[in-house]
Structure formats: C-alpha cells, structure tokens
TrEMBL record:
GO terms for cellular component: nucleoid. Pfam families: SSB. CDD domains: SSB_OBF (cd04496). The keyword Aminoacyl-tRNA synthetase does not apply. This is Single-stranded DNA-binding protein. GO terms for molecular function: single-stranded DNA binding. It comes from Gelidibacter salicanalis. It comes from the Bacteria. Homotetramer.
C-alpha cells in the first residue's frame, strides 16, 4: 500500500499545445492541460457532463515524448503524483498551483489523430 500514498491516474484529452522547453541545466520540461469528463443524470433525468481541468508537468524523457507526439485534443492516459507549490507574481501577489507530475504517459486513440492540433 505504500506505493498508493500519492498516485494519480487520469485519462482525458489535451486542452492546449504542450509547452516544452529545455532548462539551463539541460533538463527538458513540458506543461499542458488535460480535460477529464464525467457524465451523470441530474434530478430531472437529463444527462450532464462535468469537465475538470488538470495541469500536467512532464520531465525528461516523458517531456520529449509529449513534445514530439502530443497535441491539442489527443487522448492520453497519465500516471503521476499530485504536487502543490506557490509563487509570487511581479505585483507581489501570492499564487498557489496544484499540478500532476507525470511519471508515465500512454498515447491513446487512433494513429491518424496522433498529432492532432
């Protein structure tokens, strides 16, 4: 059970073109948003879609895969851990961010939509 302490698994669609960059250290990082959908029926029996947006961060080899093969709308499965951090804006406001740091990525969908953008 110790491996389940901080594990996130998501399947969804990429919401934006991943932003990949190489840091001064030579390490590569990629950031993108992922939309997950769930459906339920409301009290009137109507089908309702609830979309949640997640910030995803990938490092190293996974970032390279994201940069090369992942585009807007692409369906992917992500496994990683949930992290939180804060930073200060130029105006001195403190901001808080919660992200999923990807340990694994699986490209889903058809080969034809591999680089959909």
């Amino acid at each position: 059970m110790s491996t389940l302490k901080n594990k996130v698994q998501l399947i969804g669609n990429v919401g934006n073109v991943p932003e990949a960059k190489t840091l001064e250290s030579g390490k590569k990082v990629a950031n993108f948003s992922l939309a997950t959908n769930e459906f339920y029926k409301n009290s009137d029996g109507e089908k309702v879609q609830n979309t949640q947006w997640h910030s995803i961060v990938a490092w190293g080899k996974i970032a390279e895969i994201v940069e090369k093969y992942v585009g807007t709308g692409k369906e992917v499965a992500i496994e990683g851990k949930l992290t939180s951090r804060s930073y200060e804006t130029g105006a001195g406001e403190k901001r808080y961010v919660t992200e999923v740091v990807a340990d694994e990525i699986l490209l889903l969908g058809t080969k034809d939509n591999q680089n959909a953008e």
